[in-house]
């Protein structure tokens, strides 16, 4: 869709140009002292890109710089895309939010809930409530992630071969059926716990649409929006644009995490929860579609009312994640933040203790990437880097401070 570039004078959309530069100065220090390899920051308002900057390397060994067309593993920033796919099918009448997912995936018909005991011999009971579609969209299904190392059920997942990622020899249908055989952490709808729920949702999209997840994304979302660089793998002619992945070493400095050729090989199990590779230009287009109520450049994926419904708090009783969620790994404080259908939603900025607008919705990825959409201020932000885990540094809260202090109209 053309070169990614600044499209307006920042002052025209209410930003102070010098204050925006604080973003660059602050995060340059992360690179200069070795905490991050490199990064890209994009800030837009009212559909215009007011700030676009890059710093550091996409590959520290070669010194190749981060550029505006660099490709990044966006991990859990895949989740909002999968959620949009499911809601597109909802708008067709193909499914309802209250549908038990066993309607689409029969292996989820007779779920059991963990009660007590060790991972090797857990005591379980039959679930009183089926997992429903809205439970997947809100992470209230009772599913888990093995890598969290918090509950016995996490350990059960790891023992079954599910720590990070999916076994290479299984397709998505097989992976989901194996999860269905494992106990739930709690009764569906009773608590919030970050989990493989969006991967299960991706399988629902496949069953309902009759298409593989990559085909649905390509035909119904990426193609129409012009997201030409987003997918589950990259081809050879784009290989040199791919950013290397790093982890925080014992000294706090970014250390290469060898991913082999995984970015170049189409996975057998397509992860709607964390499998996509994308670019700043592509993800910016996705955020603009959301900001505009489901439409961009004459292409409509969702109705404005559906987007508004997705981006309100769906946790029972209006609870926030601190009240309703399990105390697990988190990149940002849970206080004052609810959860919608695929997005975290700021409910109370004062309680959240971060400069933000009520109604802003967001999510991030395991390699310290993040985005948010602020309908009140008509602001969208995309920040891309490649450092795991994503709670190593307070990037997300600091980025909010730096963006909103520059908004002066």
From TrEMBL:
Q: Which domain of life is it from?
A: Bacteria
Q: Per UniProt, which keywords does this protein have?
A: Hydrolase
Q: Organism, per UniProt?
A: Planotetraspora silvatica
Keyword flag Secreted: no
Q: What is this protein called?
A: Serine hydrolase
Tell me one Pfam family matched here. Answer: Beta-lactamase
**GO MF term list:** hydrolase activity
By its UniProt entry, which SUPFAM superfamilies does this protein fall under?
beta-lactamase/transpeptidase-like
The residues covered by the Beta-lactamase-related domain are: 24-400
- Does Hydrolase show up as a keyword for this record? yes
């Amino acid at each position: 869709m053309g070169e990614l570039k600044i499209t307006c004078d920042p002052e025209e959309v209410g930003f102070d140009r010098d204050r925006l530069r604080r973003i660059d100065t602050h995060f340059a220090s992360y690179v200069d002292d070795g905490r991050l390899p490199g990064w890209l920051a994009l800030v837009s308002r009212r559909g215009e890109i007011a700030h676009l900057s890059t710093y550091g390397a996409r590959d520290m060994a070669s010194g190749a710089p981060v550029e505006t067309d660099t490709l990044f593993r966006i991990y859990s920033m895949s989740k909002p895309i999968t959620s949009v796919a499911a809601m597109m099918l909802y708008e067709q009448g193909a499914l309802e939010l209250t549908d038990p997912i066993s309607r689409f995936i029969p292996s989820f018909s007779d779920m059991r809930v963990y009660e007590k005991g060790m991972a090797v011999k857990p005591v379980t009971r039959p679930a009183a409530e089926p997992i429903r579609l809205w439970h997947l969209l809100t992470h209230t299904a009772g599913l888990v992630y093995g890598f969290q190392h918090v509950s016995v059920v996490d350990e059960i997942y790891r023992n079954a071969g599910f720590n990070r990622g999916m076994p290479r020899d299984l397709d998505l249908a097989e992976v989901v059926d194996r999860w269905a055989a494992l106990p739930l952490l709690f009764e569906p709808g009773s608590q919030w716990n970050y989990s493989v729920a969006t991967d299960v949702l991706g399988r629902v999209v496949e069953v309902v649409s009759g298409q593989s997840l990559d085909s649905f994304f390509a035909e119904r979302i990426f193609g129409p929006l012009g997201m030409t660089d987003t997918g589950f793998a990259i081809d050879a002619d784009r290989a040199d644009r791919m950013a290397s992945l790093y982890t925080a070493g014992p000294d706090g400095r970014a250390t290469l995490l060898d991913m082999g050729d995984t970015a170049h090989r189409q996975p057998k199990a397509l992860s709607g929860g964390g499998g996509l590779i994308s670019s700043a230009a592509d993800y910016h287009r996705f955020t603009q579609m959301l900001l505009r109520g489901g439409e961009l450049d004459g292409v409509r994926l969702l109705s404005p009312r559906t987007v508004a419904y997705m981006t309100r708090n769906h946790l029972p009783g209006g609870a926030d994640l601190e009240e309703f969620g399990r105390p697990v790994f988190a990149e940002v404080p849970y206080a004052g933040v609810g959860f919608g259908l695929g997005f975290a939603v700021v409910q109370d900025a004062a309680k959240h203790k971060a400069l933000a607008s009520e109604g802003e919705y967001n999510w991030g990825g395991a390699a310290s990437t993040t985005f948010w959409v602020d309908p009140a201020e008509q602001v969208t932000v995309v920040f891309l880097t490649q450092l795991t885990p994503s709670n190593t540094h307070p990037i997300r809260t600091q980025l909010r401070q730096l963006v909103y202090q520059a908004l002066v109209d």
